[in-house]
């Protein structure tokens, strides 16, 4: 391992310095033939990196963890987690490293994290590697989510390693460089609580407060305020997922961040035909993480976080439980409010429309969409055309035209605003068949489909000539669609 010859930003290692018990110093494995596949130049600029330097051999070495800048201390982070409801006390970064932290142009501390950088002591028998396809998936979907205004980790780069990775077949390997507000997870708190070290738990909570919710430090009960804030952030996040039809696929507690950012794009997808039971993960055979189950699972995960914080909430166990229960009971209301506000915007309803009028309209529309299995993205985007007098494209999406027409008549009486709708209903999302097309081509060395898909989904609200296929649902012969975690 070498030290970067010309570091372009200043790195820090605050997490590993303050919470040494929650990480293990480690180093990335050698990469036989590192070569840059895709670089997020706008994000690089925000972080203070020189994109030209990142494309150089020294820059690529940093992006794979083989060249470590001054101030960085690569570590594998420790965390526990409930995976599909079953508790695993020791998970951690089995194939990932926190390279270090940088301060971006807006003064925010950001993690630079590597995925697929090799085995760590947390690997649990895995090879520690990643294939090109899943890393490109995370790049595509995370950047699409960012463009949709949804809090998310982001992809800085994907670097091919020149090493083969063995899954069902032999695949080309890659390392993803990911950027996040932090990688603190519910599972991080579960790991700290399981040690029985209350001082460590308190230091972790103080670290999370300082990094994400500094106002909580001045609250009468800072740790209760932390729980309140995390729950509110997750309620807002889940509402945003649901409003665009996003299905995460693996909502384990180790995949829920304290910051309220979306993390770990494994078996994820955007719903096409509207159905709350939609599942895309190949391993979610029971539908635990189906589209419609996501808000409930988020609250369940938050209950696991609350359990870890009990020793900090109050010295009396019963009172601590009561405080946590009261906090968590606010989640459904916060989520429902965020969902209702988002749906009002999607339907272009003026502020003067009362909830008494808006809520039944939304409920009836959800029922109609489910009955008709209408394409979620196309339907909502097309509604602004209805307002402008062109109902046929959207009308043709549903089979029950009589039911649709009756609903539209009620909706139009509320005078919806088409321009408002176009600002929140995307034309382009990462359609599953197009993602698979881009991943297959990228795996074979052709990045053209990836580039074209990214062009569409990173400017999702502006309809552009020549991009019609990126707004269309999957062809009839595509599916049933299943995604895999890539490990």
Considering the chains and any ligands shown, give keywords for the structure.
43% helix; 5-stranded antiparallel beta sheet; 18 helices; alpha+beta; 487 residues
Brief overview:
By secondary structure, this protein is an alpha+beta fold.
What is the average per-residue confidence, as pLDDT, rounded to a whole number?
95
Q: Element order, helices and strands?
A: HEEHHHEEEEEHEEHHHEEHHHHHHHHHH
Report how far the terminal alpha carbons are from each other. 26 Å
Broad structural category: alpha+beta
Helix content: 40-55%
- Per DSSP, the total helix count is 18
Strand order of the largest sheet: 2-8-9-7-6
| Unreliable residue runs | none
Shape: globular
Beta-strand proportion: 5-15%
Record field, number of beta strands: 11
Radius of gyration: 23 Å
List the SSEs and their pairings.
Blueprint: H1 14-18, E1 23-25, E2 35-39, H2 41-47, H3 51-54, H4 57-63, E3 75-77, E4 81-83, E5 86-88, E6 96-103, E7 109-115, H5 132-147, E8 154-166, E9 170-180, H6 186-194, H7 198-212, H8 222-244, E10 246-247, E11 269-270, H9 294-313, H10 317-328, H11 331-346, H12 355-372, H13 376-387, H14 392-395, H15 401-412, H16 418-424, H17 432-443, H18 448-457
Antiparallel strand pairs: 1-3, 2-8, 4-5, 6-7, 7-9, 8-9, 10-11
Helix pairs in contact: 5-17, 5-18, 6-9, 7-9, 8-9, 8-10, 8-11, 9-10, 12-15, 13-16, 17-18
């Amino acid at each position: 391992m070498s030290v970067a010859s010309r570091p372009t930003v200043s790195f820090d290692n605050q997490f590993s310095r303050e919470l040494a018990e929650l990480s293990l110093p480690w180093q990335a494995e050698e990469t036989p033939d590192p070569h840059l596949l895709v670089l997020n130049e706008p994000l690089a600029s925000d972080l203070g990196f020189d994109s030209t330097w990142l494309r150089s051999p020294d820059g690529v070495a940093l992006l794979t963890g083989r060249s470590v800048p001054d101030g960085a201390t690569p570590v594998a982070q420790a965390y526990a987690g409930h995976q599909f409801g079953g508790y695993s006390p020791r998970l951690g970064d089995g194939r990932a490293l926190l390279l270090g932290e940088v301060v971006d142009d807006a003064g925010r501390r950001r993690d630079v994290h590597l995925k697929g950088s090799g085995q760590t002591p947390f690997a649990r028998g895995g090879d520690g590697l990643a294939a090109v396809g899943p890393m490109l998936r995370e790049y595509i979907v995370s950047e699409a989510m960012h463009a949709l205004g949804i809090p998310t980790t982001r992809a800085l780069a994907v670097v091919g390693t020149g090493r083969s990775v063995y899954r069902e077949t032999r695949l080309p390997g890659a390392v993803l460089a990911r950027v996040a507000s932090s990688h603190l997870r519910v599972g991080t708190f579960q790991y700290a609580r399981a040690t029985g070290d209350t001082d460590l738990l308190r230091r972790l909570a103080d670290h999370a407060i300082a990094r994400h919710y500094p106002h909580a430090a001045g609250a009468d009960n800072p740790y209760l305020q932390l729980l309140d804030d995390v729950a509110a952030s997750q309620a807002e996040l889940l509402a945003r997922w649901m409003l665009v039809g996003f299905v995460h696929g693996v909502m384990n507690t180790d995949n829920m961040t304290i910051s309220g950012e979306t993390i770990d794009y494994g078996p994820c997808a955007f719903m096409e035909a509207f159905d709350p039971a939609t599942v895309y993960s190949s391993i979610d055979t029971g539908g635990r993480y189906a589209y419609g189950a996501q808000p409930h699972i988020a609250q369940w995960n938050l209950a696991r976080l609350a359990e870890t914080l009990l020793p900090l909430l109050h010295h009396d166990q019963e009172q601590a439980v009561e405080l946590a229960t009261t906090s968590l009971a606010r989640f459904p209301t916060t989520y429902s409010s965020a969902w209702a506000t988002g749906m009002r915007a999607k339907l272009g309803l003026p502020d003067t429309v009362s909830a008494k009028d808006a809520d039944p309209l939304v409920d009836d529309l959800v029922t109609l969409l489910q009955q008709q299995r209408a394409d979620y993205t196309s339907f909502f985007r097309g509604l602004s055309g209805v307002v402008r007098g062109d109902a046929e494209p959207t009308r043709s999406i549903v089979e029950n035209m009589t039911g649709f027409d009756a609903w539209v008549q009620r909706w139009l009486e509320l005078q919806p605003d088409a321009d408002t709708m176009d600002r929140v209903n995307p034309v382009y999302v990462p359609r599953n068949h197009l993602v698979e097309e881009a991943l297959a081509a990228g795996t074979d060395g052709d990045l053209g489909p990836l580039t074209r898909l990214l062009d569409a989904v990173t400017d999702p609200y502006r309809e552009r000539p020549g991009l019609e296929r990126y707004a269309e649902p999957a062809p009839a012969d595509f599916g049933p669609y299943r995604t895999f975690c890539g490990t």
